[in-house]
Structure formats: structure tokens, C-alpha cells
Design a protein that fits this description.
The structure holds two protein chains of two kinds. Chain A is an alpha+beta fold. Helices cover about 30% and strands about 35% of the residues of chain A. Chain A folds into two domains: about 5-200 and about 305-395, no CATH class; about 205-300, no CATH class. The two termini of chain A are about 15 Å apart. Chain B contains twelve helices and twelve strands. The mean pLDDT of chain B is about 85. Classes of the chains: A alpha+beta, B alpha+beta.
Amino acid sequence: MATHIGIGFSQKSNVALAAQEASILAKKQAQQQFFDLVLILSSVHYNPADTLETVRQNFKQTKIIGCSTAGIILADRIETRGIAILAIKSTEIKFGVGASPSIVPGNFYQAGSQLAQSTSLNFGPNRRQLFLLLTDGLIENNSIVIKGIREAFNNMIPVVGAGSSDDFRFQKTFQFCQDQSLTNAAVGLIMGGEMKIGIGLKHGFKPLGKPRIIDHAQGNIIKTIDGQKAATVLAEYFGEDTLNFHAKRLSRMAMLYPLGIYIENEGEYLLRYVLDINPDGAIICQGNIPQGARVHIMLGNKDSYKQAAVDAANEVRHLLLGKLPKFFIIFESLTRHKLLGKSSLLEVQMIREILGYTTPMIGMYSLGEIAALKSIDYIAEPYLQNQMILILAIA
Amino acid sequence: MYNGINPITIFSFLSLTAFLIAGCLVFIVVQRNKKIKHLTASLDKLLNSFNSLDEQAKLIVKTDLELNKAQEELSKRLIGLNALQKISRLITTTLDANEIFNRLEKSLASDLGFEKILILMPDENKNLLCRLQAGFSKEFTEQIIAQLSKDQTLLTDLREGRPFSSLTSTKQHKEKICSLFGIEHFLLNPIITQDGFTGLLLAGNQSPEIFITEGDEELISILANQIGQSLENTQLFEQVYRSRQDLELKIQDRTKQLASALEEVQKISKNKSDFVSAVSHELRTPLTSIKGYASILMAGKIGEIPQEVKDRLEKINKHSDNLVKFINDLLDISRIESGRVEMKLIRHDVLSIIDNLRDLLTPQMKDKNIQFKADVPQGIPELFVDISQVDRIFINLLSNAIKFTPVGGIITISAKTQNDFVLFEVTDTGIGMTEEDLSRLFSQFYRIDNEINRNVKGTGLGLSLVKNIVEAHKGKIWVTSQVNAGTTFHFTLPIAK
């Protein structure tokens, strides 16, 4: 019983050469010829179809999944351009992949259900232990897609994952599943078998000021807070200009001060990144907003963000009962990368210190992170979250 | 009467009880009200604390926001400055205009962090050409060029050195530039060199959320200047390179001409030497006969001759001797020049040379009461010379010195080591020479026009011979003089190793 992991990365400007080099390096590192799963993480500089074609040539019978990202996290560096391949061959872990190819408003829930079904079908009658979701981060309401997946499994398996991203332009992201390169889609991976799961999820923000009540919300839009237009409340903190900001100038502020929605049953804050302000004063967030919830402006700094990464890694270690993982994947909000700047690599080193310097690892900067609010209770209801660091480790 | 219980008593009891209950109720209500008031006050206090806390939070957020903004701007400037330094280094270390743009292409977008970069420059016909593009398609760039060429107003402003920025330009300009280049934020700077407007540099972002800052404005302005300077350097280099090439060609031509002239001169010189040598030889033979016959006649071997004839014969003999000396000098010069003289180089002591000279020339110096001084340090190295030739140097120079030094003057010979040579100086306190004379002194047949020379006959070959002998020893000779103060001949001869 063994699991072999190989990670390859290339920055060659020619897509075929880059995909080829990354594939060869992954194979070489794993010292195997045949693999069960390949995870592709690629920056949007490369044509996804061409990437997939070359990867497929190198991994003929292997299940393939992946997505685009704003940055690839490697053990020793962070790159915003390149193609990374994680190749796994395992006699202990089973994999099943699936896709929901075209998600449009109105079919979010069905897309989730369909994804769960297609992935289950591919996985076969094995014991399912984890569903990894890679969804288009630009999709308007991924929360409902998640709900569709979760309910298709009767809330029985943990759902974790991330939203694919582009090069900070928020224009187009892509997803890979088997021989399909997709956009506006969600792809999934079911894992099961002889394995232990460790999930760590943190943000490092603290609530600031008095709690406010969201008295009117619909989907991902907050209409009123404390009886006032939601934007007016934001303006109290950020100044009158906020009302005129809209999407153009809001992003930096939204990154620094996300909204923290207190989830009563979970006793934890769900972060929401403010995407835009409607002309009617409503706030558009990335992810669903529960009506009636308490909301705070949240505040953090580089130290608290890094500490969150350390805490997440420690939670993983705790869930793995102190065991070092076989490999781990980091899904980290691209806004955290913006906020941490050069400290991003330091953060990765801090995680590696806890989860093992020699443990194979890979990561991506995502547009939304998906997991239950508390790592310890990872089987609980998953949320689409913002500005989080999510570590998924398999032991 | 009710079984002995007085109804009044009952009424009184009931009334008392009711009163007590009412009193209790009032007490409770009062107490409750007090509690409510207290709680309300506490709640108000709590609310005030919350509100005060919230006000503080707002202040913290605003301060933090400002700090973040300042920090962001600072770090952006630092990154920009680093990038600028890197780019400057890259483009100033090449003198090839194409290479400048190659290097810029590689680092501009990635280092400065702009999504779009465009450099357009006019060609000789003033048509705009794209020299660098990042983030623009070829087709779109062509569209931009066509538009700019059609509507020249933007170019006119740029030609006048006016930059544009989405931060500070007018709304009209902003809209025009954004629409032309398909971007949200921009910096558009002219590239100016000494020749004036050389091109335009556009840096911009398509993403609405990626703003231009004041730091970016400075950065791109510096970069545009830097590009202008680098291009100017390449132009200057090209000019210098071309001039150098022209110069080299001219030098080559001139060298060829000179070499050919030198060849000609050498040929003429050789012909001259050959001619002089041949003529001298031809002259010497009849001169020997003339001298011989004159001697026979003077000796009276053919018969006694009158005194007058004898006097004339002596003159013939004397002039023949002069002529022989003249011809010998000419032959020596000719031999030395043509390299036909074999120098017999041997080690020779400097002091003994000077002593010999003193002995040889003392009578002449005594005649004019000239004082002879020798300043030669003990232990001066030996010379490696042909002594017969070196004697001629000294005799020539000292004879001249004696000739031009007035009665009671001083002649000094000094010697000192100078690298691999001994430097001799022959100084007199004679009449000296003018600058013009000095420049022609070593030319053959040149004689200074002065009273002494007019009275004393000479060939004008002595110093030319001296120069040839010194140079045949790899030495140098030069002269310094001051009219009415004296003259010094300086020359070097090699040291024996």
C-alpha cells in the first residue's frame, strides 16, 4: 500500500512546452509511469485546451481535474505565471472526477446536484470521504451550487474547495475535467479509501465596532443594516466617498475590511468580500448573506493573517492526530496574497514548518474558499467563504 | 350581631389587610420601577459604550485606511524605483536602439506592473511606428496609430512636451485617451531628445480597480526621459562611430599616401646618398691627384718654383684638404643614413673620453682663454659605443662651442645616468641662437647666419653628422639656447650592460 506524489512546474512561454515540462517533472519526482489522478493548476496566460492536450498526452489513463489560478503556491516560491501539475498514484486512495459544464443563473442548485452525481458515478461504489470542488470563482452564486452538492450527498461528506481565479482581472477563469477545458463550470473530485483528512481553515480577522443587524438581505445582496441602507453603514466607517466608489475603487477597502457575519450556531464569523455597491445603496457580496445575522467590520494585519495560516496548519495536524500528511493543498484567497505581498512565501514556510518540510505540497490563489466554518467540525455545513486560507491535507 | 364578632371589627380588619396589600403593591411597583430605571440606565450606558466603541472603531478604520494607503503608495514607489533602476541599468548599458526596446519589452510590464505598455516613434517620414507593445494586439496598435495620425491634436500636445495622466488631465483628454487606447487608467508621456519629440510612451491599466498614482506619474515621466537619453546616447554613439569610421578611412588613405610618399622620399634619399657617394668618390680620386701633383710641385721635385707659385700651391693644397674633409663628411652621412656604416660597439669609460677631449682641445681653448669644466660623477657607467664616432660627436660640438664662445667664456661638459643611457650636456656661454635657428640646426648644409659664420667657412654638415651618429647609437639629441646667453646640446648614448 503506497501513495506516490509528484509535483512539476514550468514557466516556459510556449504552452505545450510548459505543460510538457511540468508533466515530466511531476512524473520524475514521483518516479512512476502511471498515475491515478492529476491536478492541473495554471495561470490564465496559457491556452487551457492546449494545456490539457499536452497533459493528456503525458497522462493517458489518468483522471484529470484542475483550474486556473491567480497564482501558484509552490514549496519554495510563489508564481503568478506558470503551469503546475500534481500527480498522484495510490493503492490506498480512490479518486472520482466529474464536471458540471455550464452553470447559468437559475440552474445553480441543479448544477451542484449534477456535479455530485457525475463525480459519484466516476468514483464508483467506494467509500466516499471527501468532495473537493473547484468552481468558477466568477459565478454569481456558488453558495447554491455548494448546497446542491451537499444535499445530493445527504450532507454526509465534507465539501471543501475553492473558486478558480484569473490574473486579478476578474474576467474569465477556466476549469479542467478529464479532456474538457471549461469555463462557467464546476468540477469535482471525490476521494476515499485508506486515508485521513485534515482540514484547516482560518482568516485572521477580528471584529471591530458594535455589532449591526442585517435586517434585509437577498442572496448575496445586503439591502439594509440597522434599518439603514447598507452602503450608508459602510460609509460611516470608510467615509462618505464610499457611496460613490462602486466596484472601481472599492476592492482595496473591501480586501482590508471584509464584513464578518456571525453565524449563531457555529459561533464563528463568516467573511464576506464586498464586490460592489448598487446605486440603491445595497451591498453586493461574494457569497450568500443570511438575513437577520449580526455583522461587523473586520480588521486584520499581516501578522494576524500569518498567524491564521499557522493556526490552520496546527488544526490540520490536530485532525491528523499529529501525523504528517502524505501531501497537502493550500487554497488561499487571492486577496490575502495581495495583502501579504512579499510575506506570502513566509506564510508558506510557516505552514511547511508544521506540516513537514519534505511533505509534497501545492497551492493556488482562489476566488472564494469552500469549507465548513470550523475545521474541527469539517463535516458540517460548508460555506463559500472569502479571504480565508484553507489547507487540505491527506494522510 | 353575628355570633359575638363585631362587624365593625371585621370591616376594620379587612380594611387594614387591603391597605397593607395595597401598600405592598405600591412598594413592589416602586421597587420594580426603580429596577427598570436602573436597568434602563445601565442599558443606556451599555449602548453609549457600544456607540463610543463604534466611534473608536470608525476612527481606527479611517486611520488604518490612511496608513494602508500610505504604505501601499510607499511600497508601490519602492517597487517602481527598483524597477526603474533595473530598467535604467538595462537600457543604459547598450548603445543599440533595437536592443533598448528588446530589453524594455522584457521588463517593462512585469517590473512596473502596468497591464499595457506602448511606445510609438515616428520614422524619417514622420509616420508613427510601434517600437514596443505589451498588452495590445497588433491590429489594435495599428488602429491606434491610424487614429493618432488622423487626429493630430494629441500628438501636437505631446510634441510640445505635455504629458497626460488619468489623474490630472482634463475630462475631455481622459475620455479621448481612454477610448483611443482602450484603457481605464493611463500615463502618456512624450519621449524627448535633443532633436525634440522622438516618440510617446503609454503605460496604463485596463482593469478599473488598478489605479494610477502620483508615484506612477513620476516614474513614467522619469522613464520617458531615461528612454530619451538612452536613444540620444545611441544616436551620439552612432554619430561618433560613423565619424570614427570616416576618420579611420581617412587615416588609412592618408597613411597610404604617406607610406607612398615616404617610399618616394626614401627612394630619393637613397638616390641622393648614392649620388653623393658616387660623386664624392669620383671627386676624391681627382682631388688626390690634385693634392699629389701640388705636393710634387711644392716639393720642387720637377724644378724650383717661385715663391708666389708656392703660395698659390699651398692654397690649392689647403682648399683640397677642406674639400676632402667635406667629401668625407658627406660620405659618412651618406653611409650612416643608408646603414652602410658598421658600428663597432665596445665598452668605453666616460671619464677617459672627456680627458682625451680636454687634451685635444685645450690649445684652441687657451687661445680664447676659455675655461673648460667637466661635471662627470665618479662611478658613472661605461658606454657601449663606437668610440671613433663618439669622438666625432664631441669634437664637432666642442669645436662649435669654442667657435661661438667669446674670449673668457666657459664650456662645460656634464654627464649623468638616465635609465639605460648617459645624458651628456655640452654647454657654452656663447652667442646663443634664435628659435628659428634651433628648429633647422640639424639640417644638412644649414649654417646660421651670423657674423662668426660669415667669417669662418664651414660645410653645414657637422651637426647633421652628429645627429646621425647619436641616432645610430639609438640615442637622442636636442638643443636649448638663449640668444647672448649660451647654448646647450643634450644627447644620450647607451650604457654598457
